[in-house]
Every structure is written in structure tokens, then in C-alpha cells.
Amino acid sequence: MxxxxxxxxxxxRDQLDRFLLDAKEDLSVATEKILPILDAVRTRGDKALIExxxxxxxxxxxxxxxxxxxxxxxxxxxxxxxxxxxxKNIETFHEAQKRESWSKTIDxxxxxxxxxxxxxxxxxxxxxxxxxPSSVLMGVIPAKIAGVKNIQLVTPPQKEGxxxxxxxxxxxxGVNRIVTVGGAQGIAACAYGTESIPKSxxxxxxxxxxxxxxxxxxxxxxxxxxDSPAGPSEVCIIADASANPKWVACDMLSQAEHGEDSSxxxxxxxxxxxxxxxxxxxxxxxxxxxxLEMKQNSIYKNSAIIIFPSLEDCIWFSNELAPExxxxxxxxxxxxxxxxxHAGSVFLGPYSPVAMGDYISGTNHxxxxxxxxxxxxxxxxxxxxxxxxxxxxxxxxxxxxxxxVKLMSELEGLDEEHGTSVxxxxxxxx
Length: 430
Hints:
The chain has helices at about 15-20, 30-45, 45-55, 75-95, 135-145, 165-175, 185-190, 210-220, 245-255, 270-285, 290-300, 310-320, 335-340, 355-360, 395-410, 415-425, and strands spanning about 5, 65, 100-105, 110-115, 120-125, 150-155, 175-180, 200-205, 225, 235-240, 265-270, 305, 325-330, 345-350, 385-390. It is α/β, with parallel strands linked by helices. It has three domains: about 5-25 and about 230-360, Nitrogenase molybdenum iron protein domain (Rossmann fold, 3-Layer(aba) Sandwich); about 30-230, 3-Layer(aba) Sandwich (Rossmann fold), CATH 3.40.50.1980; about 395-425, no CATH class. The strands form three sheets. It has a six-stranded parallel β-sheet with strand order 1-12-11-10-13-14, sandwiched between helices. Strands 2-7-6-5-8-9 form a six-stranded mixed β-sheet, with helices on both faces. A three-stranded antiparallel β-sheet has the order 3-4-15, with no helix packed on it. The mean pLDDT is about 95.
């Protein structure tokens, strides 16, 4: 068995549509299962959380929250050094995204925008084998820079205790509390609030299908704000014969390593290069067998190498795919990048694997999946800021513009009060 190699053009809809239509994760089954959990947490609070944690995690909680600043940690200095370096780079990148309020005179009136942060945030961090402490950096840092005051980390409890790395990160990032409840019940606790857990206005971070379903459902009800709806991890690579096939194969496998539902799509114009990448994938399965079945399922079932007639066609399909991660490894990287319209994050050149953005370079790795980058952006400072528009109208401008307001309000049938609210100010003084 090997990765599918497809010869396509823009008219190959029967072959290409499967990558476009299969991109979205079906959460209908998970949503049906989590609805009773959400309702139980909403109505019974901490008691329901303790019951579900015992049922799903086999752990009896005495408390559903933890103060990270009350715990002594003894983390390996080398691990600290790595995360502190990542923290610095992520902070520097996101500091550049800060917004300043502004005002401008338009038609004699002062108009503007005031940026205000959301008041509270929960950052979800999966537990067990899917532990992603780097996602804590990605969720908390831009929120802190935006000015969010109340931030809590949400993570499932562990029988051997919470991972020390999560406690230490909470300390250095200034997280207010750790909510030691996972799954849909943890999301519900932060969305509704309980006796012990303050309600959050916004929830971000990766999780399993039940976490994703809970976030999407509650966001759809207007109860919380979320990062973009999440699906399986994905990478698209645009590469020509100048790229290193071994490196490209490794980059594809780095996405397959996330899960068997992950996808890795290589777009190229060179058949020989496509074959070389396929061969390198097979070699890697022999040389690096860790998570072998997972990686093979991802590569054989959800991934492909697609050979197009031209680089322009590769760019066209990448924009159709709107991938979470896009790598560009060609002789003309900047020219290709200039034509990219939709991607969560772009990695330019042979020395820019996705793993650099996942951990250390400074960009955010919480990204839209399932073609979401057509309408969503990566998590950033803007995610946690609200635009409050304001205006200060002068008496002279009000009098000058009233005739237009009169006509427009009459046209919409709202002249009795809308129109009058302006008119009386032209006829009377304070």
C-alpha cells in the first residue's frame, strides 16, 4: 500500500472534491452525546462535574479548581529554557499586533474606535497522550497582550497529578486558576460557570470531538465565543523538483503524527518528484515506526500527492483547500506566496517546517481547519479585542445633515421618532 498519487487538472472534480467535502469533521454524533452533559453542568454545577470526572476519568475530585501559584514546581531547567525561549518569541510576534484606539473628523463630527479586551478567557489543554503545553502559550499570551484580566486553564485531571509543565506555565503566564475538569463537562463549566468556576466569555484550545462539539454548540447558542471550529490537523505543501523529497515526506508525516484523521496533501507538477516523496514516506515508516498505524492510516486514507499541469494550478487548488498549514518549497516562493489567498499559516522555504510554528518561531499555532481559513484567521491579539465605535456630533453638523436623515428615515418608515430625534435638536437649545 502507498499514498495515492493523482494526476489532476481543474476539471478533475470527481477526484478533487473528496478533499474539499471531507474536510469538515462531522460532530453530529458527538453533539448528541454531550447535550445531557451540558445541561447537567448548567443545572447542577460542581456536583455534576465531580460525578462526570469519576465516570469518565476514574478520579474522585475534592475540588474542581487549583491555584497554580500555591504549588512548588521542580521542572527540568532545559525544558524551562525551551519554553521561555518560545514564550519570548511568541510575545514579540503578538506584541506587534496590538491595537491603538483612534478617532477621525468626518463631515464635521468626531468618529472613532475604542478597543476593549474581552473580560475573561478559558484555555483548554488536553491531557494524557494528547498533552500540548505549547498550546497554553499560544492561547494565553495573545490574550494577556490584549488585556484580558481573568484567564483560567482547563485540563483533565490525571491520576498521578497534573503535569508539572502545565502548573509551571500557568505560573509564569499569570493564569488565575486551573480548572481540573476535562471534556465537554469542562467546557460547560467554563461556559455557564459553577459555584467554584467563574464563567468565561471566550474559550480556546484544542480537544477531542466532544470538546469540539461542546465549543461549537455553545458558541452557536451565543453563550461563549470560540476560536474557529476545529477539525483534524492538516498540511498542504506546494513543492517543485527543487525541494528535498525526504524533507517533504517528513513534513507530511509530522501532520499524520497528530492522528489518523489528519491529512497531508502535496501539490506538485513533477511526476518524478512525486514518486520520490512516496518512496521516502515508505522508508520513514520502516525507520521511524512510532505511532506507525496512526501515521499510515492518515497517509493512506486521508492524504495524497496531486500532480497538476502547472504551478498556477497548484496555487488554485491550495486556495480552494484553504489549509490550516501551507508550506511553499519552490524556486519562486515569494511569487507563489503573493498568489495565496487562504491559509491559516504559511511556511516559506525549505527551512520552515510546520513544527517551527508549532513550537518556537513565534506565530500562533491555533489555526482554522477544515477550509476555515477562507473566513477565519489564526488566533491573535485581535481575537480577544472588541471594537467599540463612538461618535461625537456637533450642532452644526447635525443641522447640516438633518435633511438627509429626514429623507432616509421617511423612506424606512421610521421618521416619527428617528427623524424627530434629530429634528428637535435643530429647533431647540439645551
